[in-house]
Amino acid sequence: MADYHKEIVLEVKGLKTHFFTKKGVSKAVDGIDFVLYKGETLGIVGESGCGKSMTSLSILRLIPSPPGKIVEGSILFKEKDLVSVSNEEMRKIRGNEISMIFQEPMTSLNPVIPVGEQIAEAIRLHQKAGKKEAWNKAVDMLKLVGIPSAEKRAKQEPFQLSGGMRQRVMIAMALACTPEVLIADEPTTALDVTIQAQILALIKDLQKQLGMGVVMITHDLGVVAETCDQVAVMYAGHIVEYGPTEKIFQLPKHPYTQGLLDSLPKINEDQEELRTIPGNVPSPFEMLKGCRFASRCSHAKPICSEKHPELLVSEEGHSVRCWKYTDSWGKTPNWTEVSQS
Predict the structure, then answer these.
(1) What would you measure as the largest C-alpha separation in the chain, in angstroms?
(2) DSSP result, 247-285
(3) Which residues contact 334 (CB under 8 A, 6 or more apart)?
(4) Which pLDDT score, from 0 to 100, does residue 220 have?
(5) How far apart are CA 19 and CA 30, in angstroms?
(6) Which one of 121, 171, 200, 238 is least enclosed by Cβ atoms within 10 Å?
(7) How remote is the C-alpha of 245 from its chain's centroid?
(8) What are the domain boundaries of the chain?
(9) DSSP 8-state symbol, 293
(10) Nearest to 2 by CA among 56, 39, 49, 44
């Protein structure tokens, strides 16, 4: 990646997004922090239901309200806290300065409007362009994302395009206004492997051209290894490990991260069965006192179920939320003696 002197484009601090329902309070996102730098990619990884997508929807203020609400924390973008800006100001930012590629292009695109018109609408809205200028730019964007016969495809409706093409249309729409931050929520889900590789290469290439910060939300560790500079591992609404991709893959600290990496097939090993993490992710309605991973963790001790661990940070910026990395399980952090045992 190009060197942008680590300019911060997005900073999330203590973000909590809760849902207030008849069943109780669901703590979907429960106090997370991360920083996104210009020209870099941050991967947010974890099992389904851990809060990844709710984090992205919180950043864009797209949480269904009621029952959802950002109850605490800040989302800092260009010295503005997106939690407190007006709805009108947020509409100007959303799709223009911060864009999102949604998980399912068929449910995100209007099924009865030509795809070129859908892209042009965003350009007219945010950039005050005329109808012809916006249409021409929409066609150019379709060419940029590698759609052949772009002029013809622009006039077609989503059902007339393949899954890979629809995903490219979503990318074209997200990038039409040259955003500073792109949030990609499972951008390669349900695509075949060759199309997945093309979509990821396309995002990476456009990122280099535009200098965007990218938040890549995925459960696919292969995607993370290929595209991300930093990784935040989420579990049950918390970030349990955070740091440079290389460090997390080479020496994962949290038992959950280790479990995720152990569950991948190894080329150099003869494995009859893949390793699994026992148990299930706790319900976001559960009011757990201690570590949320304790019931599934082979390293758990009594303190793990009794007291919630804080995020410990090493000098290299690698952080972990685990009692295992304190002297005598409960005193001050001592990273020099950390091991994976």
Answers:
(1) 68
(2) HHHHS--SHHHHHHHHTS--TTS--SS-----S-PPPTT
(3) 325, 326, 327
(4) 84
(5) 11
(6) 121
(7) 14
(8) 112-171, 254-337
(9) T
(10) 39
The single residue listed with the structure tokens 């500073």 is 180
Model pLDDT for residues 317-328, shown as the tens digit of each residue: 789 999 888 764
- Residue 118 · residue 101 · CB < 8 Å: no
Phi, psi of 72 (to 5 degrees): -160, 155
Length reported for the chain: 341
Q: State the pLDDT at residue 311.
A: 84
> Could you tell me the two tokens for 90?
């947020």
Structure tokens that stand for 269 in this block? 């090993």
Predicted confidence at residue 190, as pLDDT, reads 64
48-82 core/surface letters (b: 16 or more CB in 10 A; e: else): ebbbbbbbbbbbbbebeeeebebeebbbbbeeeeb
- Asked if 303 and 324 count as a contact pair (C-beta separation under 8 A), the reply is no
Q: Are 233 and 320 in contact (CB under 8 A)?
A: no
pLDDT recorded at residue 333: 52
Q: For the chain, which residues score pLDDT lower than 70?
A: 1-5, 105-106, 190, 267-272, 315, 327-341
